[in-house]
Amino acid sequence: MTGYPIEVFWSDEDQTWIADVPDLPFCTAHGPTPHEAVAQVELATEAWLEAAQKNGRPVPEPSPRAVRA
């Protein structure tokens, strides 16, 4: 896990669960369950970070997670 917040939601249009990493542009994945969507976006996050490092692109810091009471 990289520490980046992940947003998970159901897409009526696509009829699938979507997992998105808002801090990383275009880092999104999908799956038939919320768990699978998160597992896929974790792989996509690793690939995104590796590609950015390899190509000398800046990597944003993870945004703080909201604290819920």
Task: Write the SSE topology.
Blueprint: E1 7-11, E2 16-20, E3 28-31, H1 34-54
Antiparallel strand pairs: 1-2, 2-3
What does this structure look like?
This protein has 69 residues and is of the alpha+beta class. It has a domain at 7-54. The chain contains one helix and three strands, in the order E-E-E-H. The chain has a three-stranded antiparallel sheet. The longest helix is centred in the middle third of the chain and has 21 residues, at 34-54.
Low-pLDDT stretches are: none
* Ends distance: 24 Å
What is the percent of helical residues? 25-40%
Largest sheet: 3 strands, antiparallel
Give the C-alpha Rg: 13 Å
Quaternary state of the chains: single chain
- What fraction of residues sit in β-strands? 15-25%
Number of DSSP-assigned strands: 3
The average pLDDT value, as a whole number, equals 93
Output the structural class: alpha+beta
What is the helix/strand order? EEEH
Task: Label the overall shape.
Answer: elongated
- Put simply, the count of helices is 1
